[in-house]
Amino acid sequence: MNAEAILQVRGLGVDFATARGRLHALDSVDLDVRRGSTLAVVGESGSGKSVLSRTILRLLPPSATVAAGARILFDGEDLLALDRAAIRSVRGRRIAMVFQDPMTALNPVRTIGSQLSEGLRLHLGMKAAAAADRAVELLATVGIASPARRAGQYPHQLSGGMRQRVVIAMAIACEPELLIADEPTTALDVTVQADILDLLARLQADRRMTMILITHDLGIAAGRADEIAVMYAGRIVEKAPTREIFRRSRMPYTAALLRSIPRLDDPPHARLSTIPGRPPVVFGNAQGCGFAPRCERVGSACTERTPAMAADEPGHDYRCWHPLEPV
Amino acid sequence: MSAIIDPPAAGADRPEGLGTPPPQRRFGSFARLWLSVAWVLLIFGVALLADWLPIPPPNSMDFAAAEQGPSKAHLLGADLDGRDLLSRIAHGARVSLTVSLVAPAIGLLGGSLLGLLAAYYAGALRVVILAVTDAMLAFPSLVFALGLTAVLGPSLRNVTIALGIMSIPAFARIARANALPLIGREFVLAARTAGASDAYIMLREILPNMVMALLTYALTMMSIMIVAEGSLSFLGVGVRPPTPSWGGMIAEGREALERVPHVSLIPAAVMFLTVLSLNLIGDHLRQRHEAKAGGLT
Amino acid sequence: MKRFISGWTGRWAGRQAGGLARRGGHVAVVVLLLAVGTFLMLELLPGNLADSLIGENSTPEEVARIEADLGLDRPVVERFGLWAWNALHGDLGRSPLTGEHVAHSIATRLPVSIELMVLAQVLALLMALPLGVLAGYREGSRLDSAISSAAFGTLSVPHFVLGIVLILVFAIWLGWFPATGFRPLSDGLGANLASMFLPALTLALVEAPVYLRLLRSDIATTLREEFVTVARAKGLSDFQVLARHALRPSSFSLITVMGINVGHLIGGAVIIETLFALPGVGRLLIESITRRDYLTLQGVVLFIGVSFVVVNLLVDALYAVLDPRIGARGRR
Q1: Chain B residue with the nearest C-alpha to that of C16
Q2: Which structural domain range is residue B268 located in?
Q3: What residues of B are in contact with residue A64 (Cβ under 8 Å)?
Q4: Residue C274 in 3-state DSSP?
Q5: Which class in CATH covers the domain with range A5-82+214-318?
Q6: Radius of gyration, CA atoms only, chain C
Q7: Is residue A239 classed as helix, strand or coil in its secondary structure?
Q8: Using CA atoms, how far apart are residues B122 and B135, in angstroms rounded to an integer?
Q9: Number of domains, chain B
Q10: What is the per-residue pLDDT across C218-271, written as a single tens digit (0 to 9) for each?
């Protein structure tokens, strides 16, 4: 237990009731996030990373069930135990989220300014005029030119990159302590991606926010995160400071992910390394390591018993029966 | 034993938004469907066999039994003039069903033709057809039907024709909307390249693919027609007395609503159940058809 | 009859939203066709018009004089031109039966029909809005099934049957409202509203299920959009999300159909007015038919058609205000 941790997740499991049975989206997730740091949660589609981010803010649909003993401690308070009014006062105010697709994250029939002001008036009790002014300031902060004019416009009149800046502005409007960015650049052009990530980093430094960055791109995680948590099939399979992950990954899945990143200094026509098979969706009772069907180091224990989280160095956790040898 | 299975399609990672609990089985929807079909068949049967059923003739007045409720002599009671309600309902069913079958048929044939032509041929023909259908649709349909019947004179034949013509623009729109995407498809192009005439293409290639959508709509139209005919009869401009019609019977009973509501309510109930049944059947068919059409439209 | 309209309405509205000049021309064509069609109705009548006006016992001289009066001895095109020209100036002729100017007849009946329409729309919205939003919000639940089934059932009841049942229950058995008859405002607001309540409620019950289903479907779709999750993430309550974010984008189909209904109802609700004996435009229509007052009929039908077209133009303009995506680019 880290005394500086602003967010502590313990034993988090989430199930969904679907037509095909109970879908296990998250299983036994433990996390600590240090105040002011950036944690990257990396995983493929279906790994549960988005579910994780939404569970923190309790934005799950009614078909979802959270595991009985789970706790999400934010600054000491269990978010899962809060009543509805209390969690609403946390959302947007102390914890905020940046969403993936700026095309759909903004209400098409309301002006940018009104959507920005909404949070300000709700949480900070600002009057309409004051909120409108503040909204224009926020637009300037996130790097939008002619912010006063833009505030009166509608989302369809802005480019994708600008819209994502607006989404970010909405998120930081009430000065949250924790910012969750769920794939903030996935829907954007490559040229714009770096700008957005730089913006997020700058805002984080200026406001001393803690950030959880959700992404499927290890490259993004590399440059921007202090710690990386790798997820697979609803579980965290490795968690360590960034340098550790890249230099001394223990879990074969992490190593395979690293290998699959193409490198500039690869010889021409070098084969792209891929991981055979596809990530699973887990129904029913899943025992055993989720990665076993695709792992080259699989052994008999791997399909029978779920590996427990182990650590042979403080701060470096992994979940594997046959971890890679430390270099 | 691990229960990990194959992954679903991409996008499964994103959870849903507000509301939306898991889909639930629709209990009783089959029961409703079959009850509806049974009722419609019953009405059809009664209408067809009206003359041979052991009931008094529809226009014979039995003043002794006037305004009475259901009894042994009159199974559903009698109206203000002592005429047997069951018998009048059975004969009235003939009127309603004739209209509900023939009028949509007129609309279907006329509308499909116009819609097909408007989709296939561009230019003046399309403009004219669209302008005329727009103008016809600019009217509340009842006013249109009223006007036509006023001009032609009230009778079963004229009511049917008027309602049939009134439904042509709607069918035309649907036919055109369904034909347009088909016209661009390869099998039309192939037929044209092979030298098929326009008429052939329209009849043999395009029309069969539109049939399902048109028939589904026609079924919806049937219930609308029953209400329309009922409205016209209720207003006194539909079929002429003494031919019984459901709308006319409801109108007749109106003056005695206080004393003997059953005279209006019984035919009203029959009309309601018939319309409801047709609507349920139409709804069911529409859902089945939409589910099958899938990504076509 | 309103149900089949709501199906293709979206496409119709979309097409109307493109190009003011094109729309204006289109409207002019439609009105022209309406005028021609209405006028031709008179021509199609079997028998001599003058005969049907006076009766069978008239002498040929009387007939000839009536014909000359009405200008029936002039060629068709000329008569149409004259009629249309007068109509453009607001003169729809004078009924040979009642002696009243047709335009005046319509003008005196119009307020009744408009009051009926307004009251009915208000009642319909009061019923459909909360229930429709609730059903869409709780889509798939038992509450939704109950609401949707009730709407479906109400849809299937013919309007005059609805009216009769309401009269039976509220006027005859409970005695809360008068069964028929109209009390003008000069008799007092209370009396006026009491006489209008049952007719308005009947009409509202006809329209509310359609509105409800449209709203339900659109709300359910909108709630699946990402910006709704974003709004929740901002800390808004479910009610605030529904009211401020979900409602406006979900109201377009509803507004389209409401616009069509308003357009129709300006011409009076024929059945309701007949059933409840209200002196509205619809009653005028049916009376002119039964009295064979074809001149009045002509004028009323033209009025109904034109007002419908005009109202729909206004609804299109309203779209541009509500949906910022239309207007600038002319399409969604």
Answers
A1: B134
A2: 31-49+78-294
A3: 15
A4: helix
A5: alpha beta
A6: 24
A7: strand
A8: 19
A9: 1
A10: 999 899 888 999 999 999 999 999 999 999 888 888 888 888 888 778 777 888
**pLDDT (tens digit per residue) in C111-156:** 999 999 999 999 999 999 999 999 999 888 889 989 999 999 998 9
List per-block mean pLDDT (blocks of 10 residues) for chain B, which spans 297 residues: 33 36 53 89 88 78 75 77 85 90 93 86 82 76 76 81 89 84 74 76 76 84 90 84 86 85 89 92 80 46
- Flag whether B22 is in a domain: no
> Count of CB atoms within 10 A of residue B296's CB?
10
- Chain B positions touching A287 (Cβ under 8 A) are 1-2
Q: A101, C325: Cβ pair inside 8 Å?
A: no
A167 CB neighbours in chain C (<8 A) are: 230
> How far is residue A22's CA from residue C108's CA, in Å, rounded to a whole number?
67
Q: Are A318 and A309 in contact (CB under 8 A)?
A: yes
The answer, yes or no, to whether residue A326 has pLDDT greater than 80, is: no
Percentage of the residues of chain A whose pLDDT score is greater than 90: 41
Task: With cut-offs at 50, 70 and 90, classify the pLDDT of residue A41.
Answer: very high
Residue B59 included in any domain: no
Rg of the Cα atoms in chain B: 24
pTM: 0.80
Determine, yes or no, domain membership for B12.
no
B153: CATH: 1.10.3720.10
- Quote the tokens at residue B173: 């729109």
C226 vs A91: CB contact, 8 Å cut-off?
no
pLDDT at position B7 is: 34
Show which subunits contact B, needing at least 3 CB pairs below 8 angstroms. Answer: A, C
Question: Which of C223, C225, C230 is the best mutation test for A, with the most CBs of A within 10 A?
Answer: C230
Does residue A17 belong to the interface with chain B, where contact is any CB pair within 8 Å?
yes
Does some domain include residue B60?
no
Residue ranges of alpha helices (H) inside C168-251 are: 189-223, 226-233, 238-240
List the single best residue of B1, B2, B5, B14 to mutate versus A (max A Cβ within 10 A).
B2
Over the stretch C9-39, which tens digit does the pLDDT of each residue have?
A: 454 455 444 555 666 667 777 777 777 777 7
- pLDDT single digits (tens) A8-20: 999 999 988 887 7
Mind spelling out the 3-state secondary structure of C228-244?
A: HHHHHHCCCCHHHHHHH
**Which chain A residue has its CA at the smallest distance from C232's CA?**
A59
Largest CA distance in chain A: 67
What does the pLDDT read at residue A116? 93
Residue from the list B18, B221, B254 with its beta carbon closest to the beta carbon of C223: B18
Please give the Cα distance from B240 to A247 (Å, whole number). Answer: 95
Reported ipTM exceeds the 0.85 cut: no
